[in-house]
Amino acid sequence: xxxxxxxxxxxxxxxxxxxxxxxxxxxxxxxxxxxxxxxxxxxxxxxxxxxxxxxxxxxxxxxxxxxxxxxxxxxxxxxxxxxxxxxxxxxxxxxxxxxxxxxxxxxxxxxxxxxxxxxxxxxxxxxxxxxxxxxxxxxxxxxxxxxxxxxxxxxxxxxxxxxxxxxxxxxxxxxxxxxxxxxxxxxxxxxxxxxxxxxxxxxxxxxxxxxxxxxxxxxxxxxxxxxxxxxxxxxxxxxxxxxxxxxxxxxxxxxxxxxxxxxxxxxxxxxxxxxxxxxxxxxxxxxxxxxxxxxxxxxxxxxxxxxxxxxxxxxxx
Length: 317
Description:
The chain is mainly alpha-helical. The protein has one domain (9-19, 51-315). The protein has 13 helices and no strands. The longest helix has 31 residues, at 285-315.
């Protein structure tokens, strides 16, 4: 990005490298070892069965995004911006959140997640997510009723950090369990994970800009938005071009490459509003609506690309 206020490319690249921790950490290695099952020699002699590993990682990653999409839509609705759209986004995000949690526990053939989850640690994290989300249900209901306050929105923003942390833990656990040779290549799991985080970053940025414009922790929110935007753009370029230093390969096919170009086009369409926020300018209600809707469009295209990565992972087996 051209603004001198953004972090350096080197720092942003370090942030991308940090995103790979779920696949390189001791926790990942331990999870892989504990769930390895048959020996490599036996596995190689068997047909590979699709256990829905790619879709499990994909949808666990969606929980990261939804943990930010929910407060972003709630903040926008509370501010009276794009009311019909923000209400629809909030209601849809809440419904999707619950369906994914249920699918990760019980399976959902329509979502490509086959069979129930049996790993105790995974189930424990999902239960923690349920418990944490229950704390904000009254605020979410008030937001939809039009009776929420700025303090309520601040509480949602704070809780969204905990829900994001839990979703990261869940994604790390599921990635470690399902990115085995019998399920998918580690490089594919990494691409799904990193691309999936991009969805989350669009919604985190939407939440942070809304907080700035609503005067909710404005200074820290502006600083956070600055960093979120830089990591998103740098990571997007890494996905488009590959970044061997962190294990990211170039797009595996033209469809993924074209999808990433579409994400970049959507991103550039809203970048001026993000730069204006970083510069301390006040956005008009129309500009705020355009940014909210534009980031949702960027997220939707990124979500489609993650699906392409997940489908490609099956062909690599």
